[in-house]
Design brief:
Blueprint lengths: L1 E7 L5 E6 L3 H10 L5 E13 L5 E20 L4 E8 L11 E6 L5 E5 L4 H10 L8 E7 L2 E7 L4 E8 L10 H22 L8 E5 L3 H16 L2 H5 L4 E5 L8 H4 L3 H6 L4 H18 L4 E3 L1 H9 L3 E7 L8 H16 L3 E5 L4 H7 L4 E5 L4 H5 L6
Parallel strand pairs: 8-11, 11-12, 14-15
Antiparallel strand pairs: 1-2, 2-7, 3-4, 3-7, 4-5, 5-6, 8-9, 9-10, 13-16, 14-16
Helix pairs in contact: 1-2, 8-11
Length: 381
């Protein structure tokens, strides 16, 4: 993300001018913009002019508008953020109060104005504008007949291709049909990798499967690359890492990302830190349950006792339309930081964030046991 300008006063009101440069930046922007904010950017507007004779002429013009945000939609596949709201800057093409949709795209400058830039938003701006925060990894989880080609970054896990094919069973006299089916399946995976993985950006490509499916695919891909003289595959052969997964579905990525060989490759990324701390939480939930809690009420009670060592919270909670509830979560984050606790804000578009959302989106690892919280059945979350 490129920071063009930042004009925020002591009260936290002001505007920030940004230019998103990649998919990761678009996700950050989606988390920054909420209902009631003001967004300014250039857009295309369809204009209809009527001549003196009564005939009409339609044409499209580029103009700059400022709207009050009423609705936000993020298309992860097209990587476009569509923001709908009322125009507040009247010009000769658009009336004041007219509804318009602005498309925020990569490499297009826009201005975001808020009545209050809170600490969570300002921290996200700092993170998005820090080039060391991004580290992209590709992963393919597979089993016979099913595979998912995914891109993993600091904040997102996106499925770029799903391969679902029927492979004939291996029976007497039909072994060749089974072999042909497997080859078609492997070819589809290979084409998915070539289409969706940018080898210039990606540090490594994880191939994961139960059994020997990953090994067989790797052998097939190298053989095909040699036959077709595909230099892209051959020159990046060292980037492929083979590891175990329980299935070919996306949820298997969680166990893949906890493999020591994989952790060492992504140890400098935010994603690795999230996966590691979530694994610690699950382990403690089984072995020392009085030191880990999830759900808003339990976590707030632990926060009031200054007991939180690590707060795990989903960015999904900061996008809620309830302003009072959002402020409550921001206050929780700030209070934990003031008491020297560590705060991990999980991306709900990352596999670890999806897991945290299943635990209400907020959890905590405590400095000391609080068995009284376990016994307090009145704290329904």
């Amino acid at each position: 993300m490129k920071l063009v300008g930042k004009y925020v006063d002591k009260k936290g009101e002001g505007d920030i001018v940004l230019v998103p440069e990649n998919t990761e930046d678009m996700w950050h922007i989606y988390n920054l913009i909420v209902e009631g904010d003001y967004v300014t950017c250039s857009t295309i507007r369809k204009v209809q002019l009527e001549s003196k004779t009564g005939s009409s002429n339609n044409f499209r013009v580029r103009t700059t508008l400022t709207i009050i945000v009423e609705n936000i939609d993020f298309d992860t596949q097209a990587c476009v953020l569509r923001i709908k709201g009322k125009n507040i800057t009247e010009n000769k093409y658009v009336k004041n109060g007219a509804y318009h949709t602005l498309d925020i795209e990569q490499n297009r400058k826009f201005t975001l104005k808020k009545s209050l830039w809170d600490s969570v938003n300002l921290e996200r701006i700092d993170t998005a504008c820090d080039p060391t925060q991004n580290s992209d990894i590709a992963a393919v989880v597979m089993q016979e007949g099913i595979a998912h080609v995914c891109l993993i970054s600091s904040n997102m896990t996106i499925v770029r291709a799903k391969i679902d094919q029927v492979i004939p069973r291996k029976r007497k006299g039909s072994a060749s049909q089974h072999e042909k089916g497997l080859n078609r399946f492997y070819e589809s995976i290979m084409q998915g990798i070539l289409k969706h993985v940018n080898f210039d950006v990606v540090k490594c490509i994880i191939l994961a499967s139960p059994g020997f499916v990953k090994d067989q695919f790797m052998n097939y891909m190298i053989q095909q690359a040699v036959k077709s003289e595909n230099k892209l595959i051959l020159e990046n052969k060292s980037k492929f890492i083979l590891t175990h997964s329980s299935s070919g579905f996306k949820h298997s990525l969680r166990e893949v990302l906890t493999e020591p060989s994989v952790i060492s490759l992504i140890s400098d990324t935010k994603a690795a830190g999230e996966v590691k701390i979530l694994e610690t939480f699950y382990t403690m939930l089984q072995t020392d349950s009085s030191r880990v809690f999830y759900g808003k009420n339990h976590v707030l009670a632990a926060c009031n006792a200054k007991a939180i060592e690590t707060l795990l919270i989903s960015d999904k909670l900061f996008r809620c339309q309830d302003v009072a509830l959002r402020k409550e979560y921001i206050h929780l984050v700030e209070t934990v930081k003031k008491s020297n606790g560590d705060v991990k804000i999980f991306s709900s578009m990352h596999i670890s964030g999806e897991q945290l959302d299943l635990l209400t989106g907020v959890a905590a690892i405590l400095r000391f046991p609080m068995p009284e919280l376990e016994e307090d059945g009145s704290m329904e979350n």
